[in-house]
Amino acid sequence: MSAYSALTAAGYRAQVRDKTTVFFTFAFPLIFLVVFGLVFRGRAVEESGFSYLSYTASGVLSWGVANAAVFGIGFTLMQWRADDILRMIRMSPAPLSSVIGSRYVLALGVGFVQSVLFVGVAMLPGFGLVPASRWPLLIPVMLLGITTFLLLGVIIGSIADTPESVAGIANFLMLPMAFLSGSFFPLDSMPEWLQRISLILPLRYLNDAVSAALTGRGDLSDIGVGCAGLVAFAVVFGAVAARTFRWTKTS
User: Fold this and answer.
1) Cβ neighbours of 39 (radius 10 Å)
2) Distance of CA 134 to CAs 4, 144, 218, 241, Å?
3) pLDDT digits (tens, 9 = 90+) for 201-234
4) CB 226: neighbour CB atoms within 10 A?
């Protein structure tokens, strides 16, 4: 517990000192919310009758939280390995679970603040988001989403050796996934073949579950399917992360 607490405290201090990263972690999703909110204000998706906001608000929130989880641990593991911090931790009594667990707690904290800030802004008169009555289910959905994408970040941080490679791999995965999973544009208005492709992407399940919980676009079964999909991807990513994790550049 002492190793876990020390790593968590050190990670928190390092995170809050980097003002640029803190700003963009929380401001980036809000910028997308403002842009899409202004562009699609008062418009509804013809295929479903729901407002564009019910799609974009939940989609951008999901993407923002997932993005922060992936990049946060991906850059940290790469930098700690490059600086031999992971090697020193390996030589100490601290287990790997303390390393990942400390980053997990920080990711949960970031995701919680992101969600509260994002939903609060989306509820302002200019956007008019009205949370559904089952919005508390957003909490377990976000918990599973952060878990899944944090494990994806572990994989990226384990195979990448430079900041550029972390950014390149993460963006290669996250940006196309955002478009194909309906984070920026409603899947209901996309071709059916594209909707089928999105079923192999973890962000699709997070988007659907968040949308059903936050805006009521869907029912409890959509939340259940979304959570089940996230659990399945978390298991797969966890298994791959365990095989690819490296304490040093060579092992």
Assistant:
1) 10
2) 34, 17, 11, 33
3) 999 999 999 999 988 887 899 999 999 999 999 9
4) 26
